Amino acid sequence: MNTEGLLAQRIVNVKSSAIRELLKHSKMPNVISLAGGIPSDALFDFEGLSIATHQAIAEQPKSAFQYGLTEGSPVLRQRICTLCAERGIRAQPEEVMVTAGSQQALDLVMRAIVNPGDVFVVERPTYLAALQTLELAEATVMSVSSDSDGMVVEELAELLKTQRIKGVYVVPNFGNPSGLTLSASRRELLVKLAVEHNFLIIEDDPYGELRFTDQRNATLHQVSQQLLGHTDNVIYTSTFSKILAPGLRLGWAILPPVLLHKVAIIKQAADLHASALSQSIVECYLGLDRLPAQIDKIRAAYQRKGEILAELVTRELGDAISFDMPKGGMFLWARFRQPFNATEWLNTTLENGVVFVPGEYFFSDNPDRSTFRLSFATATEQQMQEAVARLRRSL
């Protein structure tokens, strides 16, 4: 039986995540991984999670083990609003959709708003899984460049003179993979363009709390509210994966009420609702008021790890590559100073026992094959020292 011939056309040419494939190599003996954007489990608040889990099961077992509302637990949605208020976002619980990680939020939103052929604009480079969701939604993806101030929104403005678009996907804070941060002036320009040209902004913010300074960047959601008096053109997504634990698989989206209702219908068909047990655990954890201290701990650790990796790369590989030091997040985005294929180089580094993510996978078009992403979140200082030494030998 030719089962391949029975596949839907939208899935035939969709590629699996290169990062997920590379993670298989990271499990091989003696291989050090600088590939996956995986939070360090050494930083998980196991004590707090244990208390919250016991509390969820002991005090609200019916909620933890029963079906729940598609939009999410009312108490959790209220606590998410409180969390978002600390980020400068004013939202009501009825605007919040709890999802199975922010990845599901992206998928649900794309399915709700994208017709086949609709144009979505991303930056070069951009988050690989966002490209997958756009491809599955059968969007036409266009891109604009990025520089040290993030997405070049001025380039988008030029594109809009001749091209109608449905939306823009952007990671404004310490983006994956670039580590770049969108400047304040470009944030303002982007939200103004969205209203002027009637398109949606999907603001993906998994890393915003992982900043290395005390300066908090205003979200696009906040900028839109302050400049325009509304947030009709901004969809905000975030997650507990990077600040609490990814295994809980909980994220959220803040949506205009009409769109939230449509997204809820799609989610009903997908999984009814996010894990009730995970929601109860996070709800109880937030009630313990341990998250602020937990985030401070993660920020300090990642800043130190990022500085160590940057120092090692500069010392051992600085004659061959360059990079911009990120102001937060989990990644160093590097580029060879001379034409060089990082994907081909990966074959050599794997032989020497170290894996990274070649940059070409993060481009929707015109990939820069001389780029690559290094993650400093998971590896220990000793592992980073050895990994960079192996990269040097691989050159």
Strand content of the residues, in percent?
A: 5-15%
H and E string:
HHEHHHEHEHEEHEHEHEEHHHEEHEEEH
Distance between the termini: 47 Å
Helix content: 40-55%
Mean pLDDT: 94
Radius of gyration: 21 Å
Outline, from the CA principal axes? Answer: globular
- Spatial arrangement of strands, main beta sheet: 2-9-8-7-6-3-4-5
Number of helices: 15
Runs with pLDDT <50, length 5+? Answer: none
Q: Give the biggest sheet.
A: 8 strands, mixed
Decide which structural class fits the backbone. Answer: alpha/beta
List how many beta strands DSSP finds.
14
Provide a descriptive summary of the structure in words.
The chain has 395 residues and is α/β, with parallel strands linked by helices. It is built from 15 helices and 14 strands. The strands form 3 sheets. Strands 2-9-8-7-6-3-4-5 form an 8-stranded mixed β-sheet, with helices on both faces. Strands 10-11-14-13 form a 4-stranded antiparallel β-sheet. The longest helix has 27 residues, at 291-317. It starts with 8 loop residues before the first helix and ends with a helix. The relative contact order is 0.16. The model has no long low-confidence stretch (mean pLDDT 94).
